Amino acid sequence: MSSTPSPTHGAIEAVWRIEAGKIVAGVARLVRDVGLAEELAQDALVAALEHWPRDGIPDNPGAWLMTTAKRRALDHLRLHALHARKHEELGLDLEAQQAHVVPDFSDALDAARQDDIGDDLLRLIFTACHPLLSTEARAALTLRLLGGLSTEEIARAFLLPEPTIAQRIVRAKRTLSAAKVPFEVPRGDERLARLGSVLEVIYLIFNEGYAATAGEHWLRPALCDEALRLARTLAGLMPQDPEVLGLQALLEIQASRLHARIDAQGRPVLLADQDRTRWDALLIQRGLAALARAVALAAMPGARQQAPGKGSQERAPSALGPYALQAAIAACHARARSVADTDWAQIVALYDALAQLAPSPVIALNRAVAVGMAFGPAAALELVDALGADPALRNYPWLPAVRGDLLGKLGRHAQARAEFERAAGLTQNERDRSLLLERARGDDPR
């Protein structure tokens, strides 16, 4: 028997990747348990693998999967006497079910809960990204439930053993179930506080794809694609939130440079050396449009902002949140025809605003790089040297890498070489290590 997947199996895989999040979310609305919802959705996938090769692909495959999964959910509820009351609340229509039509039971339940956003996907996003879970568990569960990725695919993306990812997902679902986390969108200030957790997870997934922390490859485009898809979905569900749009803008613009960030051999290409004609103009356009909407919303009276991990606060006119500010920095690069043409002074000003809103040593280091481009390497080196005492950067490879770059520009080549070698010893990514050692040997093409 040939091991080559049939066209039908390929179609099922493609449909599942697109529809998985919606199906899990729709079923979770009925059973109020994301772990159980995923199992029932997987049952529907198994049914598709059994029926579609024989009967053909349905005209609306997503609806077929949703209907089948909801039937599994209703069967589950019938078999458990504890859910009898829920049957009455849902107003089960047996005649409709016998006619193979699954009614949409959400209206009464949603009205009773009075959530200000009733979309199942939004509920699933907030549940999968619940702050009860570790950041790593949130990322794995989000990719599993919303991205439709298998544990094998997630493990491969993060360069981790499959059992490790499987355990994270199982424990995350158990934690949510044991804590009786409600399947709903939090309201008011709680929603603003929880939104930071959601944005953090999407940002983490993208960053791990954009600049892998370990392994042999510098990029993992599949993670970037999934994060961008999640960001677009969230922006579609929360189109009036400037930080959600800010995150979408940031990821769109960053993703536009993906193909220019490596050469034909997969080696990193730094920003100064990238062929900007290879940047994706459509993604840049989408990112700039999302940023413009974020800026307009942020300028509205009464708009609110949130620093990561903190409660909401009143937003000053024209003020942007941390993701929108990072998007504005990315936009400065996207609009420039070259490094020399970049408005570095504006980037420094944006980093100043970002450091006030969400201070961190990494942001301070990035600001120092911009200062070096705007005002010269000597001014930047003074800032970088001051950061050397920060324990958070003790094992951060880009601190000595930046210092080496600045020392080289100042003609202090022996010291620069030592810094690049130190940076190479700290990184866990093979491509980064090779690049840093090349620079230590003086092979930097610049």
From TrEMBL:
InterPro entries: DUF6596, RNA_pol_sigma70_r2, RNA_pol_sigma70_r4_t2, RNA_pol_sigma_r2, RNA_pol_sigma_r3/r4-like, WH-like_DNA-bd_sf. Residues 125-176 form the RNA polymerase sigma factor 70 region 4 type domain. Residues 25-78 form the RNA polymerase sigma-70 region domain. Pfam families: DUF6596, Sigma70_r2, Sigma70_r4_2. One of its GO terms (biological process) is DNA-templated transcription initiation. One of its GO terms (molecular function) is sigma factor activity. SUPFAM superfamilies: Sigma2 domain of RNA polymerase sigma factors (SSF88946), Sigma3 and sigma4 domains of RNA polymerase sigma factors (SSF88659). Residues 194-294 form the DUF6596 domain. PANTHER family: BLL0085 PROTEIN, BLL6612 PROTEIN-RELATED. This is RNA polymerase ECF family sigma subunit. It comes from Rivibacter subsaxonicus. The lineage of its organism: Bacteria, Pseudomonadati, Pseudomonadota, Betaproteobacteria, Burkholderiales.
